[in-house]
Amino acid sequence: MGMPVDERFHHGETIEGILEALEGATAEGRSAWTVIYDGPGGDPRGELESALRNRQLRYHRTEIRGLRQLYIYHVMR
Q1: Contact at 8 Å (CB) between 73 and 34?
Q2: Predicted local distance difference test score (pLDDT) of residue 4
Q3: Crossing angle of helices 45-54 and 15-27, rounded to 10°
Q4: At CA 23, angle to CA 22 and CA 28, rounded to 5?
Q5: Helix (H, G, I), strand (E, B) or coil at 48
Q6: pTM of the model
């Protein structure tokens, strides 16, 4: 038996991939969630948040501090 899948939570390897999934979900009138983290490549928040604003998507960001800084985004139209 696999883990339950919540279609509001989207995974992508790139910011563009995450944005495509979020746009698809929110186009149907739903909200969606994604998590990003800062890593060796830098902090991706600026790129993601700028792209969300350009696509007129609203979001709420929650930060979780720990070994690696996680950023949880709840995105809606």
Answers
A1: yes
A2: 58
A3: 40
A4: 100
A5: helix
A6: 0.80
